[in-house]
Write a structure and sequence with these properties.
Layout: H1 2-7, E1 24-31, E2 40-48, E3 51-59, H2 61-70, H3 82-96, E4 112-119, H4 127-132, E5 139-145, E6 152-160, E7 164-174, E8 179-191, E9 198-199, H5 204-207, E10 212-220, E11 226-231, E12 236-240, H6 245-255, H7 259-272, E13 283-290, H8 298-303, E14 309-312, E15 317-325, E16 328-340, E17 343-355, E18 358-362, E19 366-375, E20 379-384, E21 387-395
Antiparallel strand pairs: 1-2, 2-3, 4-5, 4-12, 5-6, 6-7, 7-8, 8-9, 8-10, 10-11, 11-12, 13-14, 13-21, 14-15, 15-16, 16-17, 17-18, 17-19, 19-20, 20-21
Subcellular location: Plastid
Protein name: Plastid lipid-associated protein/fibrillin conserved domain-containing protein
Pfam families: PAP_fibrillin
Length: 400
C-alpha cells in the first residue's frame, strides 16, 4: 500500500532516459530579460565531443514568481511557513489560468523526466511519502511516456548516486487533454552494490482499485520546463525538467554534498554574466549554510552569525537574532558601513539575552569586513572572517 501511495505522486521512471554523457560540457548564463522584472532567462551552451548546440531556456515572469516563492522551502513543502505557502498558492493560481500548453497530455512536451520541486501535504499522504518525499537528501523524479507502445507513468526516489533508487511503475493512458489514468503494476529497489533488482513486496494485482489513480496537468509551460499537476488524492505537485542556478545551489546545500563546489560554480556563472555591484539588501535573512562548523561554544556561534537570522536595516544597522527556547532570544546589534566594491565594515557591539521587554547584556564585540559575493531579492552569499555564508530572505522588510 505504501508503494501505491508513493506512486500516486504522479512521478515516473518507466522508460529509459537519454544516456548521460560525462564528456558533455555545459555553461549556464543567468540574467534578467528586459521584458519583465522577474523573468529568468538562461542561455545554455553545450558541447558533446565534436557536436555543439545552443538552447535558449526561459521562464516567463509568472513562472519566475513561482520559482521565487519556492526558493528556501525545505522538504519540498514539508517545512513551508504559512507565508511561503500563501506565496506559492498565489503563484500557482496565476499560472493555472495563464496561457499554458493546451491539451498537455497530447503534447510531446509532457514526455520525459521531471524533478519534483514542491508538493502540498494533505493528511492522506502515506508513511513512505512522508518519509522519502519530505527528505531533501533524497531526489524525487517523474518520467512520463505516453506516446509509446508501452505508455507509463512511474515514480522514483533516488537515495544517492552510491546507494541507488526505489522505482514504482504504472501502466498509463490519457483520458483527455489534461487527465492521465494509471494503474500500478510493479516496484523495485535498484541498489548500486547489487547486480540485480530487489522487488518491493506489494501485490498490485490483489489491490484492485487501490492500485489505480489519475493525475491532472493543470499547467504545462510553453517551453516544457515547468509543470503543475494535481493527483486524485488532492495533492498538488510542481515539477521541473530544468532547474535554474539558484535551485541547483540550494539543492546541493539541502543534500550537504559538494556545497563549496556548487557555490564556486554559481558565483563563477554570475560573474561571467557581468553581474553588477552587490549590496546588502534590507530584510530578514535565514542562515542556511556556512563553511565553518559550529564550535562547542553556543554563544560564540551565535555572535559569529553561525546560527539564526541576520536582519539588515536600510539605515546601516545589522542584527544577529537566534531563538533559543520559550520566547528567549539572543540578539546582537551593530552597524555596517560601505568601504569598497561589495565590501562593508561591520561592528557588532550590543549583545543581550532577551525575553520580551527584558534583557541581560552580554559583553561581546566583533569587528570584521563583510564581502557580498552574490545577492538578489531572495538569496545572498557573503564572506567574512574567511567563512562563507549562504542566507535565504524570509521577510521582505524589518518587522522586529
Amino acid at each position: 500500500m505504501a508503494a501505491v501511495e508513493l506512486a500516486n505522486l504522479g512521478l515516473r521512471f518507466g522508460r529509459q532516459a537519454p544516456a548521460f554523457n560525462p564528456r558533455a560540457r555545459c555553461q549556464f548564463r543567468f540574467q534578467r530579460p528586459s521584458g519583465g522584472k522577474h523573468g529568468i532567462c538562461r542561455r545554455i551552451s553545450c558541447s558533446v565531443v565534436d557536436q555543439q548546440q545552443e538552447v535558449q531556456v526561459s521562464f516567463t515572469p509568472e513562472e519566475s514568481s513561482l520559482i521565487e516563492a519556492l526558493l528556501g522551502i525545505q522538504g519540498r513543502g514539508r517545512s513551508a511557513s504559512p507565508q511561503q505557502l500563501q506565496d506559492v498558492e498565489r503563484a500557482l493560481q496565476v499560472l493555472e489560468v495563464s496561457n499554458g500548453v493546451p491539451d498537455p497530455t497530447s503534447s510531446s512536451l509532457i514526455e520525459g523526466r521531471w524533478q519534483l520541486m514542491f508538493t502540498t501535504r494533505p493528511g492522506t499522504a502515506s508513511p513512505i511519502q512522508r518519509t522519502f518525499v519530505g527528505v531533501d537528501f533524497f531526489s524525487v523524479f517523474q518520467e512520463v511516456y505516453l506516446q509509446t507502445n508501452d505508455p507509463r507513468v512511474s515514480n522514483i526516489v533516488k537515495f544517492s548516486d552510491v546507494i541507488g533508487e526505489l522505482k514504482v511503475e504504472a501502466v498509463a493512458s490519457a483520458k483527455d487533454g489534461k487527465r492521465i489514468l494509471f494503474q500500478f503494476d510493479r516496484a523495485a529497489f535498484s541498489f548500486k552494490f547489487l547486480p540485480f533488482k530487489v522487488p518491493y513486496p506489494v501485490p498490485f494485482r490483489l489491490l484492485g482499485d487501490e492500485a489505480k489513480g489519475w493525475l491532472d496537468t493543470t499547467y504545462l509551460s510553453q517551453t516544457g520546463n515547468l509543470r503543475i499537476s494535481k493527483g486524485n488524492k488532492g495533492t498538488t505537485f510542481v515539477l521541473q525538467k530544468i532547474t535554474e542556478p539558484r535551485q541547483k545551489l540550494l539543492s546541493a546545500i539541502s543534500k550537504g554534498t559538494k556545497v563549496r563546489e556548487a557555490i564556486e560554480e554559481f558565483i563563477s556563472l554570475e560573474t561571467s554574466a557581468a553581474r553588477g555591484e552587490s549590496k546588502l539588501i534590507e530584510g530578514e535573512w535565514d542562515m542556511i549554510w556556512s563553511s565553518q562548523t559550529e564550535t562547542d561554544s553556543w554563544i560564540e556561534n551565535a555572535a559569529n552569525g553561525l546560527m539564526g537570522k541576520q536582519i539588515v536595516k536600510a539605515n546601516g544597522e545589522l542584527k544577529f537574532l537566534v531563538d533559543i527556547v520559550l520566547g528567549i532570544r539572543f540578539a546582537m546589534n551593530g552597524t555596517f558601513v560601505k568601504s569598497g566594491t561589495n565590501l562593508y565594515d561591520v561592528t557588532m557591539d550590543d549583545a543581550a539575552f532577551r525575553a520580551g521587554p527584558y534583557g541581560i547584556p552580554v559583553e561581546i564585540i566583533s569587528k570584521f569586513i563583510l564581502e557580498v559575493l552574490y545577492t538578489d531579492e531572495k538569496l545572498r552569499i557573503t564572506k567574512y572572517n574567511k567563512v562563507i555564508f549562504v542566507h535565504i530572505r524570509v521577510d521582505g522588510s524589518e518587522k522586529k
